Automatic annotation (TrEMBL):
Belongs to the FMN-dependent alpha-hydroxy acid dehydrogenase family. It comes from Folsomia candida (Springtail). Signal peptide: none annotated. This is (S)-2-hydroxy-acid oxidase. It catalyses: a (2S)-2-hydroxycarboxylate + O2 = a 2-oxocarboxylate + H2O2; 2-hydroxyoctanoate + O2 = 2-oxooctanoate + H2O2. Pfam families: FMN_dh (PF01070). InterPro entries: Aldolase_TIM (IPR013785), Alpha-hydoxy_acid_DH_FMN (IPR012133), FMN-dep_DH (IPR000262), FMN_HAD (IPR037396), FMN_hydac_DH_AS (IPR008259). Residues 2-356 form the FMN hydroxy acid dehydrogenase domain. CDD domains: alpha_hydroxyacid_oxid_FMN. The keyword Protein transport does not apply. Glyoxylate binds at Y28, Q132, Y134, R166, H251, R254. It is an enzyme of class 1 (oxidoreductase).
Length: 360
């Protein structure tokens, strides 16, 4: 049996990836802010949420497909934008995009990707793809190039106008091999600063406000997703700005340590938004049961960040694709075992909290 055949869950890939990655790449991908409490709690919050399986229902045919921003996906599972995937494997973001194409989800490309929009389009022509960026002082967006390469929505990340305090990367700063010293989708200034990660501070617009969201809507006709919403208050403001989707995220615990785990804030945001726009979530999703729970709590789509990087590190495109298949298959099996034949049937009645921990 090949080594990769023995890896049967995301955690197996995480352990193996930590063996094969160079130390500072491993630190970059795995670390979180400060004491990494939110990194741990994002995952633990899913474990505290328990499933209420139903029995004796016909689940012989399962339908995982749904509509996202007006078009279908085969499964409500996608890949969050994460920078520098070329550090994990030379396939980089092309490998991740192909992995998502294989399951029919949605792939989000980071502005700090090591592959260009055009390379992604060539590698995975049929993947549904969105592009992410931050609000930099120069406000230059390579939006037209992205649109031309088939990217169909903008993801504006709001929770990282300063870089979080990742201790391991401060002790051993990330070093880029010479072949990765270009970031094709960032403006030259941004690319140069991001490559010296902690200078990124200089190019970010620290005074940015919701006006930027209005500005973005005025210059682009693409759907707009705002990523990094962590409170009901901001969800209400986002809706009032006419965004197409709210992406509940704490950046995988890399920004504010002790920020509330995303699966804990999701229910109240869903209740408040009342279907006025779509809602996505990421942070700590490592199992099909986690995806099942997030969908039951009202997320339209669930995303993973680090898992795809672990897949890439272990086996390039093959490893990344296996990770996505594992998650998809685990979701499918959880549905079968819980009496759910269509993702649209998932409601909060399928989940419960451990007594004393929280409430729905
Ligand atoms: C190594 C790494 C790089 C990231 N880079 C970006 C980025 O460029 N843009 C962005 O919006 N989020 C970025 N994120 C946050 C992810 O999009 C996502 O919110 C987070 O990884 C989800 O948590 P998870 O890793 O526990 O699944 C990054 C996360 C990691 C781990």
């Amino acid at each position: 049996m090949k080594k990769i055949d023995r890896l049967v869950c995301v955690e197996d890939f995480a352990q193996e990836a930590k063996q094969v990655l160079a130390k500072n790449a491993k630190d970059y991908f795995t670390s979180g802010a400060d004491d990494e409490i939110t990194v741990v709690q994002n995952t633990e919050a899913f474990s505290r949420l328990l499933i209420r399986p139903r029995v004796l229902r016909d689940v012989s045919v399962r339908n995982l497909s749904t509509m996202i921003l007006g078009k279908s996906v085969k499964v409500p599972l996608g890949v969050s934008p994460s920078a520098f995937q070329g550090l994990a494997h030379s396939d980089g973001e092309c490998g991740s995009a192909k992995a998502v194409e294989a399951i029919g989800g949605i792939f989000i490309l980071s502005v700090f990707a090591t592959k260009s929009y055009e390379e992604i389009a060539a590698a995975a022509p049929n993947v549904r793809r969105w592009f992410q960026f931050y609000m930099h002082k120069d406000r230059q967006v390579k939006e037209k190039a992205a649109q031309k390469a088939g990217f169909e929505a903008i993801v504006l990340t709001l929770d990282a106008q300063s870089v979080g305090n990742r201790r391991s990367s401060r002790r051993d700063p990330l070093e880029f091999p010479s072949h990765l010293k270009s970031l094709p989708n960032a403006t030259p200034d941004a690319a140069q600063k991001e490559l010296k990660i902690f200078e990124l501070h200089d190019i970010m617009d620290h005074g940015v406000t919701w006006e930027a969201v209005s500005w973005l809507k005025s210059i682009s006709n693409l759907p707009l997703v705002v990523k990094g919403i962590q409170t009901v208050e901001d969800a209400i403001i986002a809706v009032s700005h006419g965004v197409d989707a709210i992406f509940v995220s704490n950046h995988g615990g890399r920004q504010v340590d002790t920020a509330v785990p995303t699966c804990d804030i999701l229910p109240e945001i869903v209740r408040t938004v009342k279907g006025k726009c779509e809602i996505y979530v990421d942070g700590g999703v490592r199992r099909g049961t986690d995806i099942f729970k997030a969908l039951a709590l009202g997320a339209n789509m669930v995303f993973v960040g680090r898992p795809i990087v672990y897949g890439l590190a272990v086996g390039g495109t093959v490893g990344a694709t296996k990770v996505m298949h594992i998650l998809r298959d685990e979701l499918d099996l959880t549905m079968a075992l819980s009496g759910v034949s269509n993702v649209s049937e998932l409601t909060p009645s399928y989940v419960n909290r451990v007594p004393g921990h929280s409430h729905l």
